[in-house]
Amino acid sequence: MSARDPDRLDHGLVLGGGFAGLVTARVLADHFEKVTLLDRDELPDAPDHRKGTPQGPHTHILPASGFSILLELFPDLEDDLDEARAPAFDWTRDFIVYADGFAPRPESGLRSRLCTRKLLEWAIRRRVRAISNVELVPEHRVRSLITDDAGARVVGVATSSAEERQGRVSASFVIDATGRTSRTPRWLAALGFPEPAVDVVDIQAGSATQTFTPPTDDGGEWAALMTRPTPENPRQAALTRIEHGIWRVSVDGISPLHPPKSAEGFMDFLRALPYAGLYEHVGRANALSKVVSYRNNANRWFHYEAMPRFPDRYAVVGDAFFHANPMYAQGMALACQAGVTVRDELVRGLSESSSPLDGLGRRIHESLARAYRRLWLWNICAELTWLPSSSLHRERPFDLVRPYLQSLRRRTREEPELQILALKITHGVLPLEAAFAPEVVDRIAQVEPDLVGPQIRELAEAAALDRLTAELSQGPGRFESP
Ligand SMILES: Cc1cc2nc3c(=O)[nH]c(=O)nc-3n(C[C@H](O)[C@H](O)[C@H](O)COP(=O)(O)OP(=O)(O)OC[C@H]3O[C@@H](n4cnc5c(N)ncnc54)[C@H](O)[C@@H]3O)c2cc1C
Q1: What is the number of the ligand 1 atom nearest to the C-alpha of 333?
Q2: Is the pTM of this model over 0.85?
Q3: What is the phi/psi pair of residue 57, to 5°?
Q4: Domains detected in the chain
Q5: Across 51-65, 96-110, 364-378, 433-447, least confident range
Q6: 243 ligand 1 Cβ < 6 A
Q7: Pocket of ligand 1 contains residue 21 by CB under 6 Å
Q8: CA of 61 to the centre of ligand 1 (A)
Q9: Which of 76, 173, 214, 320 could form a disulfide with 218 if both were Cys (CB 3.0 to 4.6 A apart)?
Q10: How far does the centroid of ligand 1 lie from the alpha carbon of residue 24, in Å?
Q11: For 140-185, how does the pLDDT look when each residue is reduced to its tens digit (9 = 90+)?
């Protein structure tokens, strides 16, 4: 290929240095001569909080699927986690979960580490920074996209630095990983492209977090204590042990509750939880930080996969494409899985085409959307518990699968295998088809036979689930916040 060949993988550009951006930069580095990652923030050499990720101080529990991807891409990652004494844990054995009673604690094999987001992100960032063909460029805000003369393909971005110096960065492929405040819809509109349809389901949940020094007798053999909300008491809380022996407590309140903002309000919230044990533990600890709160917890899906026109050589990944209510603890794993999707689609393009970058953005979006359709169905069926008057209860595909999935979720409290299955689906270890496998359907049929008809049994087949979920990509904005 000549130096001017537009198909040459000479420069990959990643916008945003959060989880999706870092993992994507890592995978692009195996194929592009050079990779640049731009972030509006400083990208510190220490595990410090960044203002570009305001969700950072809140509990971030890494799903096992994300952890295994990170270990594959960064095999020595645990060195930093060991050094900081970030606890290793099994997602079911080491969690005490209260949901109308205590959930069983089987060993699931779903392993991860408990730590702050800032520690994990820094451990990844310093490994990405050490890759010889990757350059991290902090304090550069992306302002707009630049296209070729025909306006068909993205060839770079316009930036401004912390000192308001304007600049341009050219690239042969650009990936937006700027998170839930991504400006891609506006950047596209400025270029004459349509904006993506957006689905929003918002139960108006808010989070508040505080850290504590544990008491000398710190409560026993668990990594985390969690209490789930009920319709009568829509309060959730999680106490997790994180690095350096610290306790972090996050609470989530669902509308009409608001997350507390003061230390006093925080303790009042804990006192009112469905499970009193969590309050008792925290009551014996000493506060280490102020209470911080966060309100932008809606589920949002920007339908980039369904756009009639979209510029080539450009893709959107991570929270910028799809973000779920953080009460499900999925986002970091989805960001890691998006990086793997970018890698897999690029490798496929390289093996099948002499122009591997042509159509790559579209292929990435379609592949991500296939997983997002299933996850949206699974998550929103759970969210509807909090939206009893939503019209979605009566709409396809929710009307068909929700009663069945709700029953499955209820059974998780008594059947450890179903508990592990549900967790694997939530975290993307298993696809949603697994919820409709014959042995699972038979178990639900034993207790609630009315919920199991032939249409439910069919969904064990990927093709049947593809057909059912296809209409979830047929916006525009069908699921405006009820
Ligand atoms: C309260 C809360 C709790 C959560 N808890 C969990 C959890 O327990 N487990 C879990 O897996 N996930 C959790 N998440 C989700 C997780 O935070 C996100 O899903 C994850 O960070 C997404 O990664 P990302 O790279 O797409 O975006 P981010 O990590 O948000 O990164 C976006 C990056 O883009 C940069 N940026 C933005 N705009 C520009 C621009 N114009 N130019 C340059 N740079 C820009 C930002 O500075 C930032 O560095 C939680 C989220 C919230 C809100």
Answers
A1: 11
A2: yes
A3: -70, -10
A4: 11-200+298-373 (3.50.50.60), 205-294 (3.30.70.2450), 383-473 (no CATH)
A5: 96-110
A6: no
A7: yes
A8: 13
A9: 214
A10: 14
A11: 999 999 999 999 999 999 999 988 899 999 999 999 999 999 999 9
